[in-house]
Amino acid sequence: MANRDIEGPIHRSIIEWLHYALPGALIHHSAAELPLRGGNAPRIIAKAKWNGMLVGFPDILILSHGRVWFLEVKAHGGKASDAQIAVGDRILAQGGRWAVVHSLAAAQAVISRWSREQWGSTAVPVIGTIGAAAQATS
Q1: Most buried among 18, 23, 125, 130, by the most CB within 10 A?
Q2: DSSP state letters, 77-124
Q3: Sign of CA dihedral 64, 85, 6, 107
Q4: Per-residue pLDDT reduced to its tens digit, 81-96
Q5: Could you report the per-residue pLDDT of 20-34, keeping only the tens digit for each?
């Protein structure tokens, strides 16, 4: 059975919405996972780390109006790894914003909340309904 990309559709919907909701923002996906197999895998992973890849770095980086926000995307029921939590703790210790989100609605809720907290109003249009399933942490 082939591996199903469960997080991918969630991730892509968040990226698409962020481009719409935050025009002009710098939105970046950091591929901190290298699903490699075979004899060259250890060498390729070691080189990536040596070149600055940080294991546990959040999936999405958002730079908007001088603010830097980070989202870790997980499928429903998924949990952040120890490495991801450690990086998230480092981001929070630096005064940054970091959250684990399991859906587009959760990402919308987090970005809307951060926007209100930092600018005093909702500067980000929130599309769609945000229900009880929108569980997010920060």
Answers
A1: 18
A2: T----HHHHHHHHHHHHTT-EEEEESSHHHHHHHHHHHHHHHHSS--S
A3: negative
A4: 999 999 999 999 998 9
A5: 988 889 999 877 665
| pTM, entire model | 0.76
How many whole angstroms from its chain centre is CA 19?
14
Task: Show the tokens assigned to 56.
Answer: 């546990």
Question: Cβ neighbours of residue 81 under 8 Å, at least 6 residues apart?
Answer: 56
- CA gap 78, 69 in Å, rounded: 21
Q: State the pLDDT at residue 120.
A: 65
> Is the pLDDT confidence value at 56 over 90?
no
CATH 3.90.940.10 is held by the domain 7-137: no
Inform me whether the pLDDT recorded for 129 exceeds 70. no
- Residue spans of the domains in the chain: they are 7-137
Give the H or E element holding residue 17.
Answer: helix 7-21
Helix (H) or strand (E) holding 47: helix 41-50
Q: Phi first, then psi: give them for residue 87, nearest 5 degrees.
A: -65, -45
